[in-house]
Design goal:
This is DUF3168 domain-containing protein. The chain contains three helices and six strands. It is of the alpha+beta class. Strand 5 (about 105-115) and strand 6 (about 120-130) form a beta hairpin.
């Protein structure tokens, strides 16, 4: 197994979301790897933790990374959060991301969970990235 490409994957996912016109517009650019200090915007997207497991074989090292992207909205209903979640899914599902380290073999939607959190809404969208880290 190799965990070598994890930072490169995170950088590429963040870049894909910030450069996607729809996601950037719907969130007014509030896309975070780490939340800023102080009050947060009423609507934002946040990269989350990940789970990685070995996907090495006789030809080289590899890993499967499962990670969430979370949409948070203080809106009373789910419509706003679901609209942004759909844009995030469109931006990342089957995206051809170039990694600074390793090669992305595939990136796909895995699952999502929408729930009420306090007075707002949160949608956690999980993706699965398959990475060939042989050259990492």
């Amino acid at each position: 197994m190799s965990y070598a490409a994890t930072a490169a994957l995170q950088e590429a996912v963040y870049a894909a979301l910030t450069m996607d016109a729809s996601v950037a517009s719907l969130t007014q650019g509030a896309i975070y790897d780490a939340l800023p200090p102080g009050p947060v915007p009423p609507i934002y997207v946040s990269l989350g933790p990940e789970r990685a497991r070995d996907a090495s074989d006789a030809t080289g090292f590899g890993a499967v990374h499962d990670f969430p992207v979370t949409v948070v909205s203080d809106a009373a209903g789910f419509h706003t959060a679901k609209t942004i979640a759909a844009a995030v899914s469109d931006a990342l599902s089957d995206a051809d991301l170039t990694l600074a380290r390793g090669n992305l073999i595939g990136l796909r939607f895995l699952r999502a969970r929408a729930r009420r959190v306090g007075d707002g809404r949160e949608i956690e969208i999980w993706f699965r990235a398959m990475i060939d880290a042989s050259g990492a």
